[in-house]
From TrEMBL:
Gene Ontology terms, MF aspect: xanthine transmembrane transporter activity
Region listing for Disordered, in residue ranges: 1-20
Topology in membrane: Multi-pass membrane protein
Pfam families attached to this UniProt entry: Xan_ur_permease (PF00860)
NCBIfam families tied to this protein: ncs2, NCS2_1, pbuX
InterPro entries named among the record's database cross-references: NCS2 (IPR006043), UacT-like (IPR017588), Xan_ur_permease (IPR006042)
Protein name: Purine permease
Transmembrane segments: 64-87, 94-111, 123-145, 152-173, 185-204, 211-229, 249-270, 334-357, 363-382, 394-413, 425-445
Any GO CC annotation of this UniProt entry: plasma membrane
Locations listed in the record: Cell membrane
Ranges of Acidic residues composition bias in the record: 1-11
Similarity comment: Belongs to the nucleobase:cation symporter-2 (NCS2) (TC 2.A.40) family.
Keywords recorded for this protein, A-Z: Cell membrane, Membrane, Transmembrane, Transmembrane helix, Transport
Length: 455
């Protein structure tokens, strides 16, 4: 395919070029600039989950750097699968794929359950592989199951994702020690970062406004340098070029409780990706039909199944990049493919990846309040359209949020030894517990016996 200039007129549909705007290849300069813009918009989201998990596992800075590099590398592979694709894999739309926030809380629960065993990451990777394969097999049929995930279910789950991750931000501000009060230094760094992000979002526009969180993290780190909390150990010993060694943390371990938990996450990710594809199809002027959705879900799940081989995690579509497409009107999937290539290259440079490990935890905590709070607010926005005043939807959302919040409010709530470990893994994940509750209640109140109920 020959390079075509990106059409600046959003009303044109590739007329005169033979290609829909989604399939046009911009000139090299615009291709690279557009790709970097998508990197900037999604970078913080890609590296946040491995930072969360690495800190929770108590990994040293060098290993956290490795985990971040692996996340970047596998996000690049998943994005290329989604945008370029092959066979029946890939929606071939301008989608950025990266580590899903939905998987963080269940992975933290798995890490807690494996504390002291030293094999948390292999167990997580084994569960992600199985969940990815299952999702790939279910992709063609999942489109017909979407009716069981109406807004009242998806909105509840997205809200819980944000709420269950907010305590992680608070833990960062406490220096990774939730059992201790935050120091004045940590509070000041977190506050300065949060204020910086909010001010930048208020004052900036266009591209710079899109990367306000990233700019806030950079500013917070610079402010933290004089305080002596910036650890440069990983950067001093990082190689210029490196490859995410397959199974660096050990070969995958397959445990039923962890697999069940991650399979639930995979269904949530598939639901979110389906909604994202429908929304993006409207924005780019190419409707996402059942065939496109199935191909897109195959890319999501295949990318997730392959990621653990390179020490990565479950991937899904990034909604923030959909907004970027809407704002810039650059609809070319090759622009986002360039973003995927950038991610791969960044993942192959440990020195660059180590720069992320320089960010102090309190700075991440300040930015995380906005980052994770935005996810929760997005879920509330979905619930707003769910018709909570109709039927038993309010009851479904209320009970599901309550079940999902139990492990957030009290991590020791299900520590009773009489509860099977399989069930503990699910119950200790607010996302998994809330999602299962929402799906089952939606089936009970809105599907089972519906024909016999009075209108």
């Amino acid at each position: 395919m020959t390079a075509e200039p990106e059409d600046d007129d959003p009303e044109r549909d590739g007329a005169g070029t033979g290609f829909h705007p989604v399939d046009q290849v911009p000139a090299p300069g615009r291709l690279l600039a557009g790709g970097f813009q998508h990197v900037a918009a999604s970078y913080a989201g890609v590296v946040a989950p491995p930072l969360v998990l690495g800190a929770a596992l108590g990994l040293p800075p060098k290993e956290i750097t490795f985990l971040v590099g692996a996340a970047l590398f596998t996000a690049g592979i998943a994005t290329l699968l989604q945008t370029i694709g092959f066979w029946k894999v890939g929606a071939r739309m301008p989608f950025v794929n990266g580590v899903s926030f939905a998987g963080v809380a269940p992975m933290l629960a798995i890490a807690d359950a494996r504390a002291g065993h030293g094999d948390a990451l292999p167990v997580i990777h084994g569960a992600v592989i199985v969940a990815g394969v299952l999702g790939f097999v279910l992709a063609p049929s999942f489109c017909r199951l979407v009716r069981f995930f109406p807004p009242v279910v998806s909105g509840t789950v997205i809200t819980l994702i944000g709420i269950t991750l907010l305590p992680v931000s608070f833990g960062w501000i406490q220096g990774g020690r939730p059992d201790r009060p935050a120091s004045l230094t940590n509070l000041a760094l977190a506050g300065a970062t949060l204020v910086t992000v909010l001010v930048l979002r208020r004052l900036l526009s266009g591209f710079l406004r899109q990367i306000a969180i990233l700019l806030g993290i950079v500013a917070g780190t610079l402010i933290a340098v004089p305080t002596g909390v910036v650890d440069t150990t990983a950067t001093r010993h990082a190689a210029l070029v490196g490859f995410p060694t397959p199974f660096h943390f050990g070969h995958p371990v397959f445990e039923v409780p962890a697999i069940v938990s991650m399979c639930v996450v995979m269904l949530v990710c598939m639901t979110e990706s389906t909604a994202d594809m429908l929304a993006l199809g409207e924005i780019v002027g190419r409707r996402a039909d059942e065939k496109v959705i199935a191909s897109g879900l195959r890319a999501d799940t295949l990318g997730s199944a392959v990621s653990p081989f390179f020490n990565g995690f479950a991937n899904s579509a990034f909604a923030q990049n959909i907004g970027l497409v809407a704002i810039t009107r650059v609809r070319s999937r090759y622009t986002v493919a360039a973003c995927g290539l950038f991610f791969v290259l960044l993942g192959l440079s440990p020195v660059f990846a180590s720069l992320i490990a320089l960010v102090p935890q309190p700075v991440l905590g300040g930015a995380g309040i906005v980052l994770f709070g935005t996810v929760a607010a997005s879920g509330i926005d979905v619930l707003r359209t769910a018709g909570l005043d109709q039927g038993d939807n309010l009851l479904i959302a209320a009970a599901s949020l309550g079940m999902g919040l139990i492990p957030v409010v009290s991590r020791a709530f299900y520590d009773n030894t009489a509860i099977p470990e399989t069930l503990k893994i699910i119950l200790n994940s607010g996302v998994s517990a809330g999602c299962l509750t929402a799906v089952l209640l939606n089936l009970a109140f809105n599907h089972v016996g519906r024909g016999r109920r009075a209108p």
